[in-house]
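Hey,
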Amino acid sequence: MDVRFPKVGEGADSGKVVSVLVKVGDTISAGQTILELESEKAIAPIPSPAGGKITAISVKEGDTITVGAVLLSLEGDGGAAAPASAPAKKASAPKASRAAVVEDDDDDILPAATEDDGPVPAASPYVRKVARELGIPLSRVRGSASGGRVVIEDLARYVGKLEAKVARAGKYAEGPQGLSFPLVNQDFAVYGPVTSEPLTQLRKVISARMVENKVTLPHVTQFADADMSGIEALRAQFKADYEKAGAKLTPTPFLIKALVNTLQQHPKFNASLQEVAETLIIKHYYHIGIAVDTDAGLLVPVLRDADKKSLLQIAKELSEIAGQARDRKLSPDSMKGGSFTVSNQGAIGGAHFTPIINKPEVAILGLGKTSLKPVVTAEGKIEARPLLPLTISYDHRVIDGGSAARFTVELVKAIETFPASAVKL
């Protein structure tokens, strides 16, 4: 039998083979992982649906595969091995007649209805295969056959229309909400030595998301400093107890608890804007995204139900998800559903910075490195205090400046007056 690449999740129709964990001649069992696949920001293990002896492997590391592609061939007990299917030949783009393309007519290109591009119209297996290999979402193609069925001629017209739009725009890319911007296509080697590195799939995803978030959201950033004297004293007092319980007591769990308490007092910061329905969705759960710096790029696993967890539970879970992120062992679901994100650069260094909001959230907290600075006390004395630089970037469509100022003041107060009762085991 041929083992084919299954659909591993919503929207996961393709991916890049990171590693092949078996070889020809191996005998494997049903459910055994045969390869690892990078899709969007996660690396997922792909199990075999059946057991048997491997007679052929049709993919290699670095290949980009789509749903239905043959991965390997198996010979079962007493059965003859199914011949390995040759890797599918890349379908060539259907040629559109230039005369048939009306440059000012985009009727064959439908707008994307949702993040998943809406319902997929009827089409033959061959048309689906060609569209998949060309990277064309069928939901964007207007079908001309009975019942809106998409035929190969519709794909040809679609490709022709896209080519015409590119020709009209020159070397410009279409950005969010119809904006366009020039693409960089320059020979920098004429000025001196250069090195060329292809972008990884993860870096492409990060790039696209950052551009969309920055361009489509009106960012405003609020700055503040919080005195960490009280939290540092609590860390020194309880550090040994937490180590015995198997957790490292860093400042981050304190800051998350203080953040959640502040979010509960300011619910609009824990919300999302439904742009189509023009409705603000207030979330009554507190799933905090934690931006993790990895060798491959920025990943944001989600710490769920932070309001219901103790400081010890948060400390342990933060260590676990940060390790999974650095090892690229996060599942796609572990990076979904966040209600607010924290970007902590304290371990690296630096002070205030302006983080980009993680859409569809409406705000993000940026944390710098705590450092000793002179502070004038209420008694008029100058003392060296550990100050934490923090910034709040917020979506100005949802949050006004006054609300952001009040939120920031409350957050600083929650940090500076952190109760010892919340730390005790």
